[in-house]
Amino acid sequence: MEKIKRKILICGSTGFIGRNIAEHFAGRDDFEVYGAYFRSRPLNNQKMKMIKADLTNKDDVNSLVKGMDIIIQAAATTSGAKDIVSRPYHHVTDNAVMNALVFRAAFDYKVSHVVFFSCTTMYQSGERPVKEIDFDANKDIYPGYFGSAWTKVYNEKMCEFYSRISNTKYTVIRHSNIYGPYDKYDLEKSHVFGATVTKVMTAKEGGKVVVWGTGTEERDLLYISDLVDFVEIVIDKQTAKFDLYNVGYGSSISIADLVKKIILYSNKDIGIEYDSSKPSIKTKLCLDINKARNAFGWSPKISIDEGIGRTIKWYGENE
Amino acid sequence: MTGSGILRYILENHPAARIRAGRHITEPVVRHERIEYVKGDLRSIDECRAMARGCDCAIMAAAHAGGAGFTKAFPWEHMKENLLMNLRMLEAFHLEKVKRVVFIGSAVLYQEFEGSIKEEELDFNREPHEAYYGFAWGMRFIEKLCAFLNKKYGMEIVITRAANIFGPYDKFNPQVSNFIPAIIRKAVDNMDPFEVWGSSDVTRDVIYVDDFAKAIVMLLDSDKIKFDIFNIGSGEKTSVGSIVEWALKYTGHKPSRVKYTQDKPTTIKFRALDCSKIKDAVGWRPQYIVEEGVKKTAEWWIKNKELWKK
Question: DSSP state, A112?
Fold first, then answer.
C-alpha cells in the first residue's frame, strides 16, 4: 500500500529560500509539494504543483492553505540595503498583512505545522554571539531596520499566539544572511553576498569592484543547504507547540574578507574599492546557534570557503 | 461609540471644522451638514486612501477589544480585522500625506502590574495578559509602526492608550458587550437574582465617552506635540461592585439578591492607569465622575433599548 504523503505548501516558492526548500522536498517521495508564486514565473519542476496566489488577498490565501499539512512561510517583500533605506514603509504593511492572513488560514484549516522565517534584525549589534533570549524588546532597534524588525517580532508573537489557542505547531527561525544558488543576483535588490558575486563575476579581468560601505561590517553567513537541513529536521523532530531558533553559521566574517574570498574563488585578477557614501548597514552580528545544536544535533556543514566555491560554480553555470 | 462621541464633541466645540467620517456596515448615529460620511472597508488600501484623501488630520478610532466573554471565546477574531484595518489606514494616511493623526489604542497592551501604570512603564519584554495576548501584541506593534512613520516621514502621531470607555451608543449586545453595558442591560431587564460575572472587587479604569472624546480632540489640537503616548482614563479604580450598585440605583431595579458567578469568563483582576501625563501636557481632566456617567448611560439605554441594534 502506498504511504500517505504529507502535503507541504511553500509560500514564496520562487524566492531564494523558498525555492531551495521546495526543490529539496520535491526530491522526497513522502511529500506532496505545493509552491505558491505571484509575480515571478512559476518553477518548472514535474514533482511540484505551482499555485498562483496573492498572499495579501484573503480569498487567495484561504484556498491555498485549505488541505495542507505543513506550511513553510518564506514569502516576503524583502530586499537589500538600497531598498530598505529608500522605501522603508514598503516592507512593513504588505508583510504584516500577508502573515496575518497565512497564520489565520493555518488556524482555520487546522494545519499541523507552520515554519515561519523571521530574521535577526531585532538583535542589537555587538561583539558577542547573540542568543535567542538576548533580544531586548525595550532597547532601540537599529534605525534602518526599525519597521521591518518590529514586523518580524510581531509575527513571531502571532505564531506563539496561534500555537496557544490551536493544535498547530509553530517554528520560528531567526536566520542570518543566507547565500547560495537562486539568491538574488541583480544589483537593484540583492544583499551583500549576491551583489558582490555579481560585481566580481561581471568585472573585467584586471579591473576593480566597488563595494558599498567600508568593508569593516561583519556578517554571519550561512549556506542555504544548512538552512534547508534545519527546516527538514524541525518538521520531523519538533515536539514543542512553539519554538524559536537562531539558525546561522555561528561566527562572522567581515565584508572585506568576504569580497577577497569571492575574488579568490572567481580566479580573476580584480582590485577592490570601498564607497562609504553608498547605503550600507553598519552592524556586526553573529548568532549563537547552541539552542538549535543542542535541541536537534544540527550544525552547519558547509564552510564559508566551500559555500563560496559552490555558489560561484553555480553562478558560472546558471546566471 | 467612541467615534460618534468624538463627532458630537467636534460639532459642539469646533464650529468651523468639516469632518469626513468613515463607516462600514453600521448606519451613522450622528448626522450633521458638516459631516460627510464615506462608506468604506478599512481592509482595502484603495478605500482607505479614498477616505484619507484631502484630510489635514485624522482620528483613528476603529480598534476595539470586546468584553471578557467575546475575548475568551474568539481570541483570534481581533487579529484578523483590527490589525489589517490599522495597518492599511496608517499606510493610507502616509500615502495621502495626512499631517497629523491621533491613534486610539488600548491599555490592554500593558503587562500585568500593581498600582497605577505610567506610559513609560510598558515593558516589551513582559507578555501582556494571556486573555488579550493577540490583541495586545497587535496594539504594541501598531504603536511601533506609528513611531516608525513619525521618525521616517515626520508624520505627527499622538498615540493614546485608552481605559474602558463607556457611555451612550456602546455595544449592548450581550455576546460582545463590555461589563458596564452588560450590567446596565441586566438591570433594565430586571434580572433576579442579579447575576454578575467574576467578583465584586475586580477593578478597572473606566472613562465616560464624552470625557474621552474631549481628550482626543484636545490632543488633536495640541500641535506642539509631534509624537507622544498618553494614557486616557479616569485615573481611578472602579470596582465591579460599584458599577452594580450604581446601575441598580439609576434603573430602579431591586433584585432579591446579587450573585457573583466564578465560572463565567473574566480576564485580569485589576487595572488602573496613571493619567497624570495628559493632565500635565494639555490640561485635560474628566468632568464626569464615573457614577454620573453610569447614570447617563442607563438613562440613554432605557430610552433607546428598543431601537439600538448593537
Answer: S
